[in-house]
Amino acid sequence: MTSFPMPERDGSDRRAEPASELDCLRGILPVPLLHAAERRSRELNLGADQVLIQWGVITEEKYVAHLARHLGIGFDDLSTVGRAHCPLADADLPGIAEFGILPLQQDDTLNWIVTPRAFTARRLMRFSTTYPSLIARIRLTTRRHLHQYLTEQTGDALSDIAAEGLLQTRPAMSAKSAVGWRKGLQPAILLLVCAVLALLYPTLAMDLIGGLAAIWFLAFSLLRLTCVLVPPQPEQQFPPLRDDQLPIYSVVVALYREEASVPGLLRSLQRLDYPSEKLDIILVLEPDDLRTRAAVARARPGPQVQVLIAQATGPKTKPKALNVALPFVRGSFLTVFDAEDDPDPGQLRAALGMFRQHNDDVACVQAGLHFDNLTHSLLSRMAAVEYAGLFAVFLPGLVALGMPLPLGGTSNHFRTDTLRRIGGWDAYNVTEDADLGIRLARLGYRSVTIPSVTLEEAPIAFGAWLRQRSRWMKGWMQTWAVHMRDPRKLWDEAGARGFLALNIVFGGNILTSLAFAVLVVKLIACLLLADSTLLLGDRLSSLHVLAIACGFIATCILGLTGLMRRGRLRDGWILVLTPIYWGCLSIATWRALWQFWTQRHHWEKTAHGLVHRTGTMAANRRRPQR
Question: What is this structure's pTM?
Answer without folding.
Answer: 0.89
